[in-house]
Amino acid sequence: MMRTQVAIVGAGPAGLTLAQLLAVQGIDSVVIEARSRAYVEKRIRAGILEHNTRDVLIESGAGARLQREGLVHHGIELRFDNQAHRVAMSDYTGGRTVTVYGQTEVVKDLVNIRVAAGLPLYFDAKAVSITGADTDSPVVTFEHDGTITELHADFVIGADGFHGIGRQSIPADQISTIEKIYPFAWLGILADVPPSCDELIYANHPNGFAMHSMRSPSVSRLYLQVDPSDDVKNWSDARIWSELALRMHTPGWDLKTGPITDKSITPMRSFVASTLRYGRLFLAGDAAHIVPPTGAKGLNLAVADVTLLSDALTGFYRTGSEKGLEEYSETALRRVWRASHFSYWMTTLLHVDPNANEFDRALQRSNLAYVASSDAAKTSLSENYVGLAVIPKGKV
Ligand SMILES: Cc1cc2nc3c(=O)[nH]c(=O)nc-3n(C[C@H](O)[C@H](O)[C@H](O)COP(=O)(O)OP(=O)(O)OC[C@H]3O[C@@H](n4cnc5c(N)ncnc54)[C@H](O)[C@@H]3O)c2cc1C
After folding, report:
1. What is the per-residue pLDDT across 99-119, written as a single tens digit (0 to 9) for each?
2. pLDDT for residue 390 is more than 90
3. Degrees (nearest 5) of the Cα angle 170, 45, 306?
4. What count of other Cβ atoms lies within 10 Å of the Cβ of residue 71?
5. HSE (CB half, 13 Å, CA atoms) of 5?
6. Pocket residues for ligand 1 (CB within 6 Å)?
7. Distance 103 CA to ligand 1 centre (A)
8. How far apart are CA 186 and CA 342, in angstroms?
9. Chain-centre distance of CA 57, in angstroms?
10. Which protein residue has the closest C-alpha to ligand 1 atom 20?
11. What is d(CA 198, CA 195) in angstroms, rounded to the nearest whole number?
12. Which three-class secondary structure state does DSSP give residue 54?
């Protein structure tokens, strides 16, 4: 039997950032992670940090390498009809930026800090049940090294991703979910080649969406829209490079190619749970909501959730006030729905929908032209992309 103040299930960006924020406040937590440290640190996923996310990581003491190695971006490029249109995001948002820094690096930094501080973080430790969430002393039962351990806590945080047990531990009559499945997926690659652009490229082409991102001055991350039933085996390296070059083509621009080190297909969905709280069990990050990756919001929403949770738990331990805890779900969901709309909007603006009719396609073209030419449209895109602050009640 173990005891802590806050039991955190999941060592992804949500769980690890929360553990760090709580440690800074002197609040004890134990983090339980089903996978190995090596697996969690190598999982290639997101890589764009909103302005706020960068600030939170730096203020929590986990931003030293991020400040040295992160690539600060002031704009993005939209491409369609073989023409490039820059959106100067900083100009439209009072100088705000995004930072290119891989999720793998965020996770490594947070794990290193926790391990160096000797704070409890168990890898290869799978939570098998969460009980007593409707009491003052919930319990997480987990398996580690062939032993079953009961972790007693004041609060449990389900930061265990879409397939975790956090959300499933809320009684079915206390939670509902809203979901949209998109008729396309992303084939994502990581390649040992310097980026062919200074800023991210988002391209719409009759063959489908394409995107050029990067992880460092020597590593590029690129994506192609593919059918959800497609298989990476159908995509040789040569075919991937040729399709990327075709979809992103503009006169005078060349795509540099190099060895592909990672290839995967990710389906796209939007998903939002109706509540992020049941008694003393709180959900954060992908456990509570999923967005399609086009708006680069998944990791950023996870960090935004746990920033609120950290403030709420700090308020509780300092003053006994439950106000922050009571308001957490509603406050977080306002931001989640805004990010869900933005992610949906970017996705439908840029992808080729196999079910679209002539009318839908004409609207999409009109919208692309509007975004490329209107300061109002660019302001809206930019403020959502660099990230909105906490949205006050009554504002959405
Ligand atoms: C396959 C994939 C690809 C993605 N690609 C991109 C991208 O290209 N761009 C982008 O912007 N965003 C991307 N995202 C979104 C982004 O990576 C996520 O939003 C982000 O990881 C959310 O962080 P999290 O901590 O909430 O969840 P996660 O990162 O999923 O972390 C949850 C953790 O909980 C652990 N866990 C689960 N169940 C248990 C259990 N029972 N006991 C203990 N631990 C458990 C898991 O092993 C995992 O480590 C991608 C997401 C996925 C799933």
Report:
1. 999 999 999 999 999 999 999
2. no
3. 45
4. 17
5. 14
6. 9-15, 32-35, 40, 45-46, 48, 103, 126-127, 159-161, 164-165, 188, 266, 285-286, 293, 296, 298-299, 302
7. 10
8. 18
9. 14
10. 299
11. 7
12. helix
